[in-house]
Amino acid sequence: MKNALGFLLLLLLCACTDSRKNANDTAIFRYNEHANVTSLDPAFAKDQRNIWVCNLLYNGLVKLDIDLEVVSDIATRWQVSSSALEYTFYLKKDVQFAHSPDLSAAARQAIPVRTLNAHDIKYSLERLQSKELASPGSWIMDKVAHITIVDDLTLTITLREPFPAFLGLLSMKYASVVQPEAVAYFKNDFRSNPVGTGPFYLKRWNENQKMVLRKNNSYFENDEQGTKLPYLEAVAITFKNDKQSEFLEFAQGNLDFINAIDPSYKDELLTTNGDLKPAYQRTVTMVKAPFLNTEYLGIYLDSKQPEYRNKNLRKAINMGFDRVKMIKYLRNNIGVPATSGFIPAGLPAGGVVKGYEYDMNAARKLVAIYKKESGDTNPEINIVTSANYLDLCEFMQKELEKIGITATVEVMPPSTLRQERNKGNLNMFRASWIADYPDAENYLSLFYSKNKAPVGSNYTHFSNATFDTYYERALTLTSAQDRKALYVKMDSIIINDAPVVPLYYDESVRFINKKVKGMETNAVNMLDLTRVQKN
User: Same domain for 523 and 497?
Assistant: First the structure.
């Protein structure tokens, strides 16, 4: 079956033309989304499928560039008070809401064509706090005390307490600006009748089938030569859930890119080293980039079993398997072996702390120390995982046997695993942490003692007084360099105490038709088509 698939893909990629193409193909960007978009209301932009489309329809005060730096979007600039409590934003003058020409006469009368002002920002952010709306993004406003309008183009957001990552929170799609009149008119149907300020507007949406976005001709951005953006005339999105079918469509030229790679065809596309195979290099560009996701095994430190509470044994587990070999042969080098701290590369403190590398002899010595001190001649652990990561855990199982640890692997559905982990019923569990916002505090909060599950996300129940002191101190600092120094110290404590076993730092991988130019990504894997062109 694999060989047949590979042969078919080669035939399709070698095809020079496609009879279904038309003269306007260079103006339309096409991609497929495996799961149907559930809402075009940015207040519900919780996962990638919704986030990507909302990024094409809306803007926020700020956004992230390709280096994850917070840069201007609707705001031209901002000031932060010396107390780090007040953020004053100054807005651009020429930002206009985009309205579909297909709006009914009643909708056009109720929703005026106008430029954005500070009142729209205040409305959009405070809307997230509505209990009736029940937005999953309401938490980004938890630290906001109040929002004050200074004038039509100026507003101040005052926090309850300093939070240096606040600008990162405002870069999330939850914080996008919507037109209040459109929300009032459409009410619950705003999910399918979006009105934002982005580079595109919604033309058509047949749920579970197809979505079409059209160019917003009044979009406020120009390129360096003064040309109006976006370059594309339209974006066409299909919703096919079969990944092999998706790739066949891409190979035929009916899709312009695919995101990530499915195990069913990864060996047909990639070499063992993770490079694109020569047969595809003429028509496809592969782009790998750091992705703010650390894959790890968590260890419940309040376990009744001594194996999990013993630091030497936890360190032995960290040293007792070859991460480089694991990623090469089981992931085709998609991902970076986690031989640094818990914070992934792509963040200022990421990749700084020295972590654990494969050292069988050192691991065996630590296991021997544990056996001598505890009297336990046969330490046993149980690793709980979902089916998608079974191969990684079985690899570890075999490796740990070589250093004197008996490991069993248990498979649970992802939802059950999360529930049991949150209750403290799992001694060792596979997990991942994807950053909600681009600040290392997002990762270190997993180890703050006041965040212990089920109240917070400290699933390991790690507790360290020095770590807590550093964590609380970092929240008061406005200097990025000062925070970085504390983040590095906290990451070092995590590595030394070993409440987790970092496996790898994830990477996003995209396969892009060579006709597409200007498609950039960042470590949150955002889809930005504002400057994309097709030859």
Answer: no
H helix runs in 375-445, sequence order: 390-401, 414-423, 441-444
240 alpha carbon, distance to own chain's centre: 22
Q: What is the CATH number of the domain that holds 199?
A: 3.40.190.10
Of 523, 169, 527, nearest to 345 by C-alpha is 523
Same domain, 309 and 402: yes
Say what the pLDDT of residue 424 is.
96
In terms of domains, do 162 and 74 share one? yes
Q: Can you give the residue range of the structural domain that contains 476? A: 291-508
* 493 within 8 A of 342, measured Cβ to Cβ: no
* DSSP secondary structure letter of residue 321: S
Assess if residue 282 is contained within a domain.
no
Q: Are residues 221 and 325 in the same domain?
A: no
Cα separation of 164 and 482, whole Å?
A: 11
Which DSSP string do the residues of 72-117 spell out, in sequence order?
ESSEEEEEE-TTS-EEEEEE-S--B----TT--HHHHHHS---B--
pLDDT tens digits for range 321-369: 999 999 999 988 999 999 999 999 888 899 999 999 999 999 999 999 9
